[in-house]
Input
Amino acid sequence: MDTRRTLIELRTMVVFSARKLILNRRWILVLAVAVLVGGLMGYSATLEVDHLSYASDLLNLLFLTFFLPIFALIYGASMIRNEIDDRSIVQVITSPMDRRASFIGYFLALTIVLSLMIIITAIVGWSSYFIVAGISLDAVDLLLPYLLVLVLGSVAYSSIFLTSGVILRQPIYLGLFYIFIWEGFVGSIPGAIADMTVRHQLQVIAAHWIEYGDISYVTGDALVSAMALVVLTMVMVLIGAFAFREKEIS
Amino acid sequence: MNAIVSVRGLSKWYGKVIGLNNFNIDIGKGITGIVGPNGSGKSTFFKLLTGNIKANTGHLSVFGEDPWRNPAQLMRIGFCPDYDFLPGELTGREYLRFVGGIHAMSGNALATRADEVLGIVNMKEAADRRMGGYSKGMRQRLKIAGCLLHNPPLLLLDEPLTGTDPVARKDLIDLILRLHQDHGHDIIVSSHVLHEVERLTRNIAIIYKGRAVATGDLTEIRMLMSGHPHNIIIEGQNLNALVKLLIDQRYTVSVEMSKSREGLKVQVDDPEQFFDSLPRLIKESGCELQTVHSLDDNLESVFKYLVG
Output
């Protein structure tokens, strides 16, 4: 394989796919979410509570549990699927670029854009909260682990939902099932089944660094969780890349 | 013929719908027209050529290789689909930068080549405008620029004239002819508008219901249709004697003289024999001929006859 050639192709895919995601009208949704969480967290900071613990619970609930998988589903499941449906994918699939490399280009673009969006909205929420409650070094220490875990989550969820968009005609249904039924309901049943969710693995990693809020009580080995996410991501990307290469696109 | 594309017994179906059915064709250099009504299998053929779909049965080779799962092959093919897929938010030049990038082109080489192809398709002036504001003809020209960018020897143009106004259509026809004559690209162009293909090439393949019902030179195809009456217009002076001689010929179906008596419409069932004997008949009748041309070389009549 010609490495230089592949790198040029990959860079082009990442730049143009990321740009397409950012210019998509769904940025209005992201803006609305930012305004919503900004207002919500700003208001919550007026309550008389332990601010660090309460802010941690809000970041966990709003971002790690809800908006991260939802953003990943909205952007990831439709990324390749929409291009197949509106046939704009023709330029990619009639280029000499190996389709597996094209898939990795899509994946990297999605991960970058998703990470940026979730980081921006999380920072808006965190800022609103601590502008009202009073900023401190501990507040910054709370934010940074969350941002890191959100980036890790963006990578993992991107691999799942992007691949589902290649394999399934209606990936959104599987995504909704995964987020709300599997992670939201089945994953909350006490026992080992919760281990089989991305959310739980992210919370285990976050608990390793965060000392505030309910998340600090989550138990588990952060290294094992990180490894589990890496393996999951690699497996999903490999499945997606292989499925994309084998896919007949008419 | 040195075939660029060779197809043997190729079939492709989508569930219960047949795209191509035991399809056979050899396509050589030059411009080849693929003609058939909507749904006849033209686009399926192009998708198979670019390796976007896989044949169910049969053999297909492009430059001697199977296109399925063979992306390197696409270095030698430029594909322009029949539908509009250009992202409206990009400028023409940005689009070409994207296309060049996924063909591993970059830097000055890409910028220079992009300028070159924009010149070829006459889109230099509009290249920095967003494509959302382009007319249909401009978008078609830019799509062609995109498939030309990596300078492939073979261009596949799927219905490039569809939806364009007459002026844009003439420009596109001239462009396609130039791409072959001046730039040396071999071109496979499809259309369901028969007379348009006739203006591009006489080398055609007629597809109907997933089968190639006739391939080759338009005139040769016409010769295959021995049972189908062939209309020939003869113009000149003193045609009365020629009419008498023509009526006596075994191949003549009918002869009709124009009111001015300076034109004949002759219907024959064996055009080859007619053209062989014509010089002798002209000499015997003593008429003065100005023009002889065959109405049935018009692609429309060939198509109608072949597809019933």
